[in-house]
Specification:
The complex is a heterodimer of chains A (265) and B (284). Chain A is α/β, with parallel strands linked by helices. Helix content of chain A is 28%, strand content 23%. Chain B has 13 helices and no strands. The chains are: A alpha/beta (265), B mainly alpha (284). The interface between A and B is large, with 42 and 31 residues.
Chain lengths: 265, 284
């Protein structure tokens, strides 16, 4: 049931009336969102706005209270072999005794539950390919704690890519990474976008106009979804104040001209 | 001591008990410290005391009671950890003494003169019997085969459970399986080191091994070896000085840990230039 958009492209992800609640805390309310196949969409919003909950709903990691999520016409659980997930690096225990290769190999476990499982030659070939593609092949035998923040992100991206997904979902792919590494990561994602749909959750407004094809602004519900032109008006709505944009030293073209007097917060 | 080992069955039993308990401890201890389940394991161990009490009360083998109690409580704790909003710390604060309380209750109901519980609480490697050894061997075999069968899944479960779920792997099952194996491990080592001292033999060998390897499998093997060394040294000290073996093993293990940390600091201090941090920082 791939739904047809008005321009003839198909939707990779269709979310209808999605409500997610943790105990008494409402994370998402009546969210409707369609993400077109081949899109590079950024989900932006303040802390606690439900960005990560939305991503996890698409992955089938949180159970919705009501509503419906469909990924490539399937339920999120059925579509898992089609999705690559890149979590925040803060979720990762950097002390864990595991090398880059072993961490990336994990992605090859998709859908496999057999006893006495061993990775085969094909698994190693795919892993070697993506380690080269992400330019981390020289770090293969390092323990993951001996990597920089940017290198660890690449490892997690490689781990998602060896799933060979049609949709890549990334939670804050550039949080805690310096400006140079983060533009490298965006360049890479733009490249990958030629062959897969990409959804990122981000605070990083630098990326918005330069790399993303569309954005979805969220604060419990979606209130903007469309082209990546962050007007100061929109930023006011998203964050309640423009501090976030200015603090990052964003190139001027990202920001529309705004009236200094209106922006007290 | 060698002569004693040749001549006395109890010394041979002690030797085998050291080996068998170290196998379970090395493998499961590694899993426990990497998944940060130390307190949970302590809780499971203490509920086993209830089973020992029940064993005396019903007139069955106390170790069978311990096995039943620790298996059920491990699954129960896994269930509560997944499904309740209660802080797991609080859960442990309840399960831990509840097991002990039930044990005491059953023992006071048991007919006849109350048995001496010291060897279950503090362990006594010199009184391990033949049937005890068979118990330990069977449980060891279950633990080794299960961990080998699920090794790649266990690695994902330990490292990044959420990613495992996103891959479509059944992490809930891994949770229950791991807890059940912890329950079995507790039973394997009760006779050697006792319920109260169990955590030392679970934590220390993998913690020392962790300083010397970045590989999960090697960490398990090294932990087994260290466990054997600690147990045998403890046995020797206990034999020479006529002190409780469980206590001797724990003290040696903990001293070895601090010795290992000290040694690492010294080596790191000599080979690394000043100002370079020796541990890998969590920040960027």
């Amino acid at each position: 049931m791939l739904s047809q958009n008005s321009d003839g492209s198909q939707s990779a992800i269709v979310i209808q009336n999605l409500t997610v609640q943790y105990g008494n805390i409402l994370a998402l309310q009546d969210v409707d969102l369609q993400i077109a196949s081949g899109d590079f969409v950024g989900i932006i919003g303040p802390n606690g706005s439900g960005k990560t909950s939305l991503l996890k709903s698409i992955l089938g990691l949180v159970k919705p209270k009501s509503g419906h999520v469909s990924v490539l016409g399937m339920s999120p659980q059925e579509a898992r072999s089609q999705m690559g997930y890149v979590p925040q690096t803060t979720n990762i225990d950097r002390e864990f005794p595991i090398t880059v290769r072993e961490a990336v190999l994990m992605g090859r476990l998709v859908g496999r539950t057999g006893l006495f499982h061993r990775y085969d030659q094909a698994d190693h070939t795919v892993v070697a390919h993506y380690l080269r593609r992400l330019e981390i092949n020289e770090l293969t035998d390092r323990q993951i704690g001996q990597l920089s923040g940017g290198q660890l992100k690449r490892v997690l991206i490689a781990r998602a890519l060896v799933v060979e997904p049609r949709i890549l979902l990334l939670d804050e792919p550039t949080a805690g990474v310096d400006a140079h590494s983060s533009s490298e990561i965006y360049e890479l994602l733009r490249d990958l976008n030629q062959s897969m749909t990409i959804v990122i959750v981000t605070h990083d407004t630098m990326a918005v106009s330069s790399y993303l094809k569309s954005i979805a602004c969220i604060n419990q519900n979606i209130f903007y979804h469309g082209g990546p032109n962050l007007s100061s008006d929109l930023i006011m709505k998203v964050y309640g104040c423009p501090v976030e944009l200015i603090a990052h030293g964003v190139p001027h073209r990202v920001l529309e001209q705004h009236d200094q007097g209106d922006l007290r917060c | 001591m060698l002569e004693a080992i040749m001549h006395y069955t109890f010394m041979q039993h002690a030797l085998l008990a050291a080996l068998f308990s170290s196998i379970a401890c090395g493998i499961m201890g590694t899993i426990i410290i990497e998944k940060r389940l130390v307190m949970m394991s302590g809780g499971i161990a203490h509920t086993a005391f209830g089973g020992i009490g029940l064993g005396y009360y019903l007139g069955i083998e106390p170790m069978t009671g311990a096995l039943g109690f620790s298996s059920l409580s491990s699954l129960g704790i896994a269930y509560l950890k997944r499904n309740s909003r209660t802080n797991t710390d609080v859960l442990m604060g309840m399960f831990w003494p509840l097991g002990m309380a039930l044990g005491i209750l059953f023992i006071s109901f048991a007919p006849g003169y109350p048995p001496d519980m010291t060897s279950y609480l503090f362990g006594d490697i010199l009184t391990v019997s033949g049937p005890d050894l068979i118990y330990m061997l069977v449980l060891d075999a279950i633990i080794v085969v299960t961990v080998a069968a699920f090794f790649d899944l266990i690695t994902v479960y330990l490292f990044d459970e959420e990613f495992g779920t996103a891959l479509g792997l059944n992490m809930t099952f891994m949770d229950y399986l791991t807890f059940l194996l912890i329950g079995l491990t507790v039973v394997v080592i009760i006779r050697v080191i006792g319920i109260i001292l169990i955590l030392a033999l679970l934590c220390v060998p993998p913690a020392v091994a962790r300083m010397h390897t970045n590989n999960l499998k090697k960490m398990m093997l090294m932990s087994i070896l260290l466990g054997v060394v600690f147990c045998l040294l403890g046995l020797w000290v206990s034999y020479r000085l006529q002190v409780a073996s469980g206590a001797a093993i724990v003290i040696i293990a903990v001293l070895a840990y601090f010795g290992s940390v000290g040694l690492e600091r010294m080596v790191a201090g000599k080979t690394r230039p000043a100002g370079v941090r020796q541990s890998t920082p969590g920040n960027l």
